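Field reference: "sequence" (input) and "structure" (output). Example, Ubiquitin-like 8:
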Amino acid sequence: MAPTNANSQDSKSTVKYIPFKERKSLTTRRAELKGIREKFPTKMPIIVERYKKEKYLPFLDKTKYLVPQELTMSQFATIIRNRMCVGSAQAVYFTVNKRHIPNMSMTISEIYRDHVDEDGFLYMTYASQEMFG
């Protein structure tokens, strides 16, 4: 049985993590987004998950983030790195929608505009090595 919360997992865990999209139906995700938008209209809803083949970076304590739209991708990456407690020497790569590498100088608002999912969330994946090679 796989947990639905990454809190109980570490990077060496053998328990299978279930991605946000698989844990919640499209209807549920859209309803959740509607509530978020009503309470926080200026925040960008982002789901950040560990790459499925990642072996070194830890799972985050949460996957859902509400981010100020003017924050740059570089600033957001720093926040995520700090939450993982990884040093500056550790490489962390991000992709958007599992296939686009975000420009680190773009604002979250710009990335959201270009890559928002049909459910209204922006999906990011992180890994310690490039995910395309």
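Strands lie at 43-50, 64-68, 93-96, 122-127.
The longest strand covers residues 43-50.
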